[in-house]
Amino acid sequence: MRFPLSLTTSLTGYLLKQKMAGRKRFPLVLMLEPLHACNLTCTGCGRIREYAATIRERLSVEDCLASADECGAPVVSVCGGEPLLYKGIEELVAKLVERKKHVYICTNAMLLEKKLAGFHPTSRLFINVHLDGMEVTHDRMVEREGCFAAAVAGVKAAVAAGFQVTTNTTVYKETDMNEVGVLWAFLSELGVSGFMVSPAYAYETVNMTNPDSAKQLFMTRDDVHAKFRAAKPMLKRFRIVATPLYLDFLCGERELDCAAWANPTRNVGGWRGPCYLLGDAHYKTYAELVTATDWSKYGPGNDPRCEHCLMHCGFEPSAVMAANRRFGDMLKMAVWQMT
Predict the structure, then answer these.
(1) Of 96, 182, 222, 271, which has the fewest Cβ atoms less than 10 A away?
(2) Farthest-apart Cα atoms in the chain, separation
């Protein structure tokens, strides 16, 4: 199976419960940012630039857990910033798992070997390492030599200790998809269990802080479709954990609506709205985020900032929900999960 049985049954039961309750908007994945600090300054990331004023602030473990309880999403992605810099990360992850959440630690893995002993392998915990290419490419994108080697060492140690390890790769305009295939083949040999992939577009923060870099690195919607259509045969060879409906969307072979409300972000400012990349406001509660946001104003065709966005945090939830409405899509998802 592509995902552990516990995650599959948890998500299926949760979706049925929401459907039976008649809810149209509900969370699937909580993007939890307990801090904004990071130990890298990656070229394509706007987080440390956007949050310069709050770079030293932290959510308490209690605040994080309260947000997970309030939100109710079955999956929690602990990100940031660099979550392994967060004092209390071990306690936070353990208590989220106790709540029967499925947890992804989204890390650059620079500290993974050092911190690994503080976690315990379980089917509910995934260590998700960001890698944008092989050594030369990855080190250039994170703006520091030695990061690829450190990440690979962390991956090896985590796999050897019995953890489920996945990776996330951002695809830029200059990305050689053949190199991505080489990377995934290499990681497969190390025991990595799945690969996430997402296209890069020039969202607001990067455009404001580094417009020249944005023009060189980021793609339009047409660029994304062309790159992923050309790479589709290669993508089929690997254990990609993006749904087939989302991959069809990236290839321009189907349309999906943005469902940013399903992947809410909680950080030191509150509940970020409308989405992970656009921070027009921060709200005190998840319920306020959902009810106070005019969702009709966002998404491609509505807000120019959204025009080229195909990020998984907005459109992957839409793919999951779409699969519940069509038998053909449901069957496609079932076959994908079982392979």
Answers:
(1) 222
(2) 52
Instruction: Quote the crossing angle between the two packed helices 89-98 and 61-71, to the nearest 10°.
Output: 30
Angle between helices 221-235 and 177-190 (to 10 degrees): 40
pLDDT confidence of residue 203: 62
Mean pLDDT of the chain: 90
Quick count: other Cβ atoms within 10 Å of Cβ 111? 17
Pairing of strands 29-32, 75-78: parallel
Determine the Cα angle at 255 with ends 13 and 263, to 5°.
45
At a CB cut-off of 8 Å and minimum separation 6, what does 324 contact?
15, 19, 330
**Taken in order 236, 242, 246, 252, is the CA torsion positive or negative?**
negative
What pTM was estimated for this model as a whole?
Answer: 0.93
Other beta carbons within 10 angstroms of residue 198's beta carbon come to 19
Residues 166, 131: contact at Cβ < 8 Å?
A: no
Segments making up each domain of the chain, as ranges: 5-338
Q: What is the per-residue pLDDT for 333? A: 66
Q: What is the pLDDT at residue 205? A: 54
In terms of Cα–Cα distance, which of 54, 1, 59, 9 is closest to 30?
A: 59
Token pair 């195909």 is found at 310
Token pair belonging to 118:
């503080």
Distance separating alpha carbons of residues 305 and 275, to the nearest angstrom: 12
Q: From CA 234, how far away is CA 219, in angstroms rounded?
A: 20
**pLDDT digit string (tens) for 190-214?**
999 999 999 987 665 555 555 555 5
